[in-house]
Amino acid sequence: MFDALYLTFSAVTWVIVAYKARAWFRDRGNTDLGLTALMTAGVPVVFLFSAPSVYRAFDRLTGVANLAMVFLYSAVVLFASGATVLLLRWTSRGDAAAHARAVVRSRFAVAAVTAAWTAAIVCFAVGRPDAVEHPRDFSTAYADAPGVVAFLTLYLAIFGTSLAGLGVLCPRYAATLGPSWLSKGLRTLAAGCWLGLVYCACKIAGFVLTWAGRDVYWLSNGVAPMSASVAALLVLLGFSLPAVGPRATAWRRLRRLHPLWEEVTAHVPEVTIGASRWTSRWPLADLEWRANRQMAEIRDIQRGVRRHVEPAALEIAHRRASAAALDERRLAAVVEAAAFRRGLANQATGHVPVPHADSVVVTVSSDPAAEHEHLALVADVFHDELVDAVLKELRETSAERRPL
């Protein structure tokens, strides 16, 4: 069971790490991104060595019992060191002096962690009382071995300090960003850090209770590793959200816009000069570019049909949408959809009303994301019954006004 669980976690996290590494390879000048890719690489290593079968196989290969635990915790320390440096870099945004101070502090932090972890490994090497494998109960099995306890204490101190620092900084930094995928990622990362501190607390409580003569195997070797596993997944998710979130948003927008784009570009195929690029690439490539391109082409067609739309189309649509008690966003979408459909129909017959509407585009915000969401809502209601009713009334009104 534990093999399957931890190996699955390892596979999932390797995918996330590969995604971050790929992003860094495409932007190698981004030091923070490279550091993030390096530090997160420690997480799947932790899951890999947490699988009991891998743990034992590694020890048999090296001939040193429980050496896998050193590699496992070293991967955690790698993450903790990277997190510490990243934290210092985040807090140094500003002038050159602040950056210089951050460089000095980062070097000091790395040196301190390196010295502490070297001492911890020495304690492990001289403090093991036997050569029995303990992939799942290492901390409780050696609770009375001073060398191993020192090894574990130094590990928890390094790990816990880094988690606490990130847990405090991330929400504070996220609060300055406003609603965004980066702020969501930072808050998710903070949640993972605080849950990681639960792991540290469980381990420390396990030591204390064992020394007091009360073994709590379920706390040190059950609750602690599972809380650490969930925490690690949250941390990786937090690091990934700023990159994955906008792409997921673009994919949803693309799926909502596509039916509208496909329908309206059938009338004016010449605006789709970039369509071949969309079909020749991997379906998930350039999602934001493709969504923006579709929006731009739809807007181009809207501008082209403006002179084919009667002002009455907008007036009737607004009246009917208001009577239906629609909220402001949906009302704007219905008015735009009705005007757009009327313009396409009149363009197809060559009808140019006099006067024509000033615009068939309802601007809801100067924020591009809000405009994208608005046009996606236009696509959602393009064939809504209310829009059909607006066009029907407009046709009837036009027929009544037509001279006999």
The helix tally amounts to 16
What's the count of strands?
0
Strand-residue fraction?
Answer: under 5%
Summarize model confidence as the mean pLDDT.
82
CA-based gyration radius: 30 Å
Q: What level of helicity do the residues show? A: over 70%
Topology as H/E string? HHHHHHHHHHHHHHHH
Envelope shape: elongated
Low-confidence stretches: 275-282
Major β-sheet annotation: none
Global structural class: mainly alpha
Span between termini? 83 Å
Short description, anyone?
The chain has helices at 2-26, 31-40, 42-50, 52-62, 67-90, 96-127, 138-141, 146-174, 181-211, 217-265, 275-280, 287-305, 311-323, 328-349, 368-381, 385-401. By secondary structure, it is mainly α. Helix 1 packs antiparallel against helix 3 (42-50) and helix 14 packs across helix 16 (385-401).
Short key terms for the protein model shown above:
404 residues, 78% helix, 16 helices, 0% strand
Structure commentary:
This protein is mainly alpha-helical and 404 residues long. The chain contains 16 helices and no strands.
Please give the structural blueprint:
Elements: H1 2-26, H2 31-40, H3 42-50, H4 52-62, H5 67-90, H6 96-127, H7 138-141, H8 146-174, H9 181-211, H10 217-265, H11 275-280, H12 287-305, H13 311-323, H14 328-349, H15 368-381, H16 385-401
